[in-house]
Write a structure and sequence with these properties.
The complex is a heterodimer of chains A (476) and B (123). Chain A has 19 helices and 2 strands. Chain A has 476 residues and is mostly helical. In chain A, β1 and β2 form a beta hairpin. In chain A, 75% of the residues lie in helices and 1% in strands. Chain A has a domain of 218 residues. By secondary structure, chain B is mainly α. Among the domains of chain B are: 27 residues; 55 residues, Methane Monooxygenase Hydroxylase, Chain G, domain 1 (Up-down Bundle). In chain B, 63% of the residues lie in helices and 0% in strands. Chain B contains 3 helices and no strands. In chain B, α2 packs antiparallel against α3. The longest helix of chain B is centred in the C-terminal third of the chain and has 29 residues. Chain B is flat and about 70 Å long. The termini of chain B are far apart. Classes of the chains: A mainly alpha (476), B mainly alpha (123).
């Protein structure tokens, strides 16, 4: 038992501890603190692993990137955790179980990020999805939340079934479920290659659902709108990051880009996601639905990375550059998104863009934070989102993927419209209809806002320190 | 690849099922009585609707059953290799049972097994 399993063990112990404490005595503060302590210890144990030599076992892989991505995940969860206490206090439900489900979902995503075998991947995925069902349907009296919960339960079961079918077909072909063995065997299966392609398409179908990419994207807006706000934040960050990391790992290890059909499908899905996501968001008035559509588009941009190996390269960049690009983009997007959600959590009564009218003149800090985050989502220079997009475009140019690039540019321009519209609503003169008197700023929230501004602008203006860290990690 | 007997079997299955459906459809008396739409329950006249709310306790007991059912399945597998798995296996299994024990404790404290009380249990 090496040091690498420590984060997961800490999380499991935290879960059991909080379960015990809440069966002995229900107390919101205790549950909050146990959850926070567990997250902190997990982060510490992950921090110790960064830069250490990794190992690979049958089920899990711990290379240089894995602990870093897990740490990013934990930071995102902790940023949501900071605001949970206040947010749950306002909720008319039992509060303590939320932390329990949150920790379990985190554990599932940690397992997924480190998985090296279809078994560990699937167990992590199910642990995460089932916890998410509970998190989505948490408020039992809200009709929309219940509807979202049922939708997520059924659709994630269908997606899991698709993925299981795909895994079974790949097992039929190669006789192994380990990601490493998939890469060894390459195209030399026992059955004709269309069997492999079928299996891959099944797995991609499930993955596209989890990432809400275009043919499987219809659930995401209803879910973001219906689910409790903190759950939407987790769903947009935790579940998508974990799913994308696994997809990226399988895709590159299994050398799926050698099948022309797969490359075509992924390219079509990427272009469709960029365009459809942005078009759906264009005239959207509800802020959460807008975020849902923007997340469809953003993961469409990210899909470009999967296709890099399939196209010729003009080698003016190092071979690890695509890894750096994907990590940087993911981190930039996650920090921005968690920022947006934490700002929204500070003003729970605001649902639509009209509600934001004149926010700047009442609560300037909140408005400035949200405006910066919107700029970062749109990819305007001096924000971290710009650097992420810059990395992405640079890799795509390097690999000469002009079709995807033009879709990315068109998508970004369309997206700019609705991101800027949010900012415009906030700096409009107050019309007297919007009522911000209920907004109370807490110290927690204020500190978090400053931290978010620091991250988004700091890393956007001086990205060198951060990108060098990622560079050394992806080489190591 | 596909043998002749398989083809014959396939056709026979299709024919048989279609004949059965067709004949029963042709022979049934076409009377639109109200009683026809009622569920047949050994000739007893049904009373009330089946669309009633079940107590959530039933669901909790079903879940608990599944949990301990699975525990038994895992323990059977462990019991086969108990000597080979050694102390490591013992510790892991103990941890597994311990985790389930905490879950059971939580369930009892939640009032999942408080049957028949008017107030109590999961509200």
């Amino acid at each position: 038992m090496s040091l690498h399993y420590l984060p997961a063990i800490v999380l499991i112990i935290t879960v059991l501890l909080s379960l015990t404490s809440l069966s002995l005595k229900r107390h919101h503060g205790i549950a909050y603190l146990i959850c926070g302590g567990g997250l902190l210890l997990t982060m510490l144990s992950l921090f110790m692993q960064i830069g250490k030599t990794g190992t690979t076992s049958e089920l899990f892989v711990f290379d240089a990137i894995t602990p870093f991505l897990s740490l990013i995940l934990l930071i995102v969860v902790s940023m949501i955790w900071v605001q949970l206490y206040q947010w749950l206090e306002a909720l008319d439900e039992r509060k303590e179980e939320y932390y329990l489900l949150l920790l379990l979902a985190t554990l599932g995503s940690l397992i997924m990020v480190a998985s090296n075998h279809f078994t560990s991947f699937f167990l992590g995925l199910e642990l995460m999805s089932l916890s998410f069902v509970g998190l989505v349907a948490y408020s039992g009296r809200e009709f929309k939340g219940q509807e979202a919960g049922v939708k997520y339960l059924i659709l994630s079961a269908v997606a899991s079934a698709l993925m299981l079918m795909g895994m079974a077909i790949l097992y039929l072909q190669y006789g192994t479920l380990s990601f490493n063995d998939l890469s060894m065997q390459g195209a030399s299966g026992t059955l004709p290659s269309w069997v492999t392609v079928t299996g891959i398409i099944f797995i991609l179908g499930g993955m596209f659902f989890k990432l809400s990419l275009v043919p499987c994207h219809l659930w995401v807006a209803d879910l973001f709108e219906g689910a409790p706000l903190a759950t939407s934040a987790l769903l947009a960050t935790l579940s998508k990051l974990a799913a994308f990391v696994v997809l990226w790992r399988i895709f590159s290890l299994g050398e799926w880009h050698t099948h022309a059909v797969i490359v075509d499908i992924v390219a079509a899905v990427a272009i469709a996601s960029m365009l459809v996501g942005n078009f759906l968001g264009l005239l959207q008035n509800n802020l959460l639905r807008l975020l849902a559509y923007s997340s469809i588009a953003h993961f469409g941009y990210l899909l470009i990375i999967l296709l890099l190996a399939a196209s010729p390269t003009t080698a003016f960049l190092t071979s690890t550059f695509s890894t750096e690009a994907v990590v940087f983009y993911l981190v930039a997007y996650l920090f921005t998104l968690v920022g947006v959600f934490s700002v929204l959590m500070q003003m729970p009564q605001i649902k639509t863009q009209q509600d934001l009218t004149g926010l700047f003149w009442h609560k300037p800090t909140l408005a400035i934070t949200l405006a910066l985050l919107m700029l970062s989502l749109a990819g305007i220079p001096l924000t971290i989102g710009f650097m992420g997009k810059f990395y992405l475009v640079m890799t795509a140019v390097n690999h000469q993927m002009w079709w995807l690039l033009s879709a990315l540019v068109i998508g970004s321009v369309i997206g700019l419209f609705y991101y800027l519209r949010v900012i415009m609503m906030m700096i409009k003169a107050p019309d007297g209809e919007s009522d911000f008197s209920g907004l109370t700023m807490t110290t927690n929230g204020q500190l978090l806002n400053y931290l978010i501004i620091f991250l988004v602008i700091g890393f956007g203006t001086f990205p060198a320190a951060f990108s060098q860290l990622i560079e050394t990690l992806s080489r190591g | 690849m596909i043998s002749t007997s398989f083809l014959v079997y396939l056709i026979a299955v299709l024919l048989l099922t279609m004949t059965m459906l067709l004949v029963s459809h042709l022979l049934n008396p076409k009377t639109g009585k109200r009683v026809n739409k009622l569920p047949y329950e050994s000739g007893i006249v049904p009373s009330g609707t089946t669309d009633i709310r079940w107590n959530v306790n039933y669901f909790l007991v079903a879940i608990s059953f599944v949990i301990f059912d699975l525990e038994a399945v895992f323990l059977y597998i462990w019991s086969i290799v108990v000597m080979e798995a050694g102390w490591q296996g013992f510790i892991i299994t103990s941890f597994f049972i311990f985790a389930l024990l905490i879950g059971l404790f939580y369930e009892v404290r939640q009032g999942a097994f408080d049957w028949g009380k008017k107030q109590g249990g999961i509200e």
